[in-house]
Amino acid sequence: MNTVHDPLPAALAACPSGIAPTEWQARLQLAACYRIFDFWGWSEGIYNHISLRVPGPEHHFLLNPFGLHYSEVTASNLVKVDLDGRLLSDSPWPINPAGFTPHATLHRHLAGAQCVMHTHTTAGMAVACSARGLETTNFYAAQLSDRVAYHDFEGITLHADEGPRLLASVGERQAVILRNHGLLVWSETLPKALYTLWALQRACEVQVAGAALGPCQPIGETVRQGCVEDARRFLGGAAMGQDLFAAMLRRIDRLDPTWKQ
């Protein structure tokens, strides 16, 4: 079986001096994920963010350099920051305060929030702007139906005082629809977060595409509950998302291996 580590051992041999191997592994994962987002068309110019906590006792995490396109992100140019936004790595690039603030809130207060992802995809924003929110009328939405939280729009996410309200909205649900804004997910591992966001994005895409066709075929409550339980049983656990991430790593590595630099 393929694992998340498939393409990484050779790159680990090139770990730069002054960076711990565990941090370099995290940098490789995160840089690859930015390239996957770009391949899937989830980049938003130079905006939006994926953050990943650096292994260790400190609450440090990695973030994209503000000003670079996702296709330009590499393992070495990712920015390391602490929970107060202080830069801990030598970088000519700043961080985006609007991206740092909600990510730091989740990293600080949710023990399981090792990875946080946020997108402004067209389908995700369309559903976020819909009064109905995500409808449980397709394959992916049914799997996620007990895992989705909603947070009301408060404007650009620059203000730390929104943090407690965001946390109250999220609770323990790892898929979040930011109303009038976009999608956000968090999880214990990057592959888990990636799979959750992929499924949420697909659910939104199908809902938006089907809207022009009129009323959707409803999914009965018994079937919906069965989908939730099946997804938890077959997709849950530590390995969740690893095969998807490994496959996409191989894909982006064939296209452009500079993410490992």
From TrEMBL:
Domain of life according to the entry: Bacteria
GO MF: actin filament binding
InterPro entries: Aldolase-II_Adducin_sf, Aldolase_II/adducin_N, Aldolase_II/adducin_N_sf
Domain Class II aldolase/adducin N-terminal: 28-208
GO CC aspect terms: cytoskeleton
Family named by the database record: Belongs to the aldolase class II family.
NCBIfam families xrefs: PRK07044.1 (NF005451)
Protein name stated in the entry: Ribulose-5-phosphate 4-epimerase/fuculose-1-phosphate aldolase
Organism: Pseudorhodoferax soli
